[in-house]
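Board notes (copied after class):
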Amino acid sequence: MAGDEHASPWRDRGWVLSVARLRLDLYRLVAAIFASGAEGEAYFGGPLADLVADCQREEIEQLLVSVAAMTRVVLDQHSPRPPEARAECGALSPDTSDERPLTLREACNKILHAEARGFEWNSDFDPCLAGLSGAVYLSGKQFEKRWKARLEVVAFVKAIASLTAGRPDEAGPVGA
């Protein structure tokens, strides 16, 4: 293959990712969530509020998938797994079982394998409030068993920010 003559000695250890890029996507995800708030609408007004409304859902969905995929790579390149992998960032209801905490690693899996997703809006609880609550509902199937999860996006972002804080952005695999 072209370019393999200069292959990285890290090639067999996984994907080489930019931690800075992951952290930038985390920032964008938080900004997209909070852009929906009442203060944002009052500040933006008119055409800018329409722009936020038109683009927000797709932006959040794309960022969730991007962040989840990169985070799984980061987590899988650590041995043993860091404590952040077990950080709680929502709730999981596998099949008909009782609800249990949704860990960071499992949240990444659920985001990547979700068949359906929905956003929770503050106005679902109080008509005077605007914007996203920061919760995303995911559902899917694993080994023919249904599952559903409630992802707390801010807790998800905090766990990943903690995992990646102070990491050098180098040309080796993440976590090496």
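Comment from the instructor: Strands lie at 88-94, 100-103, 116-121, 132-142, 145-152. The radius of gyration is 18 Å.
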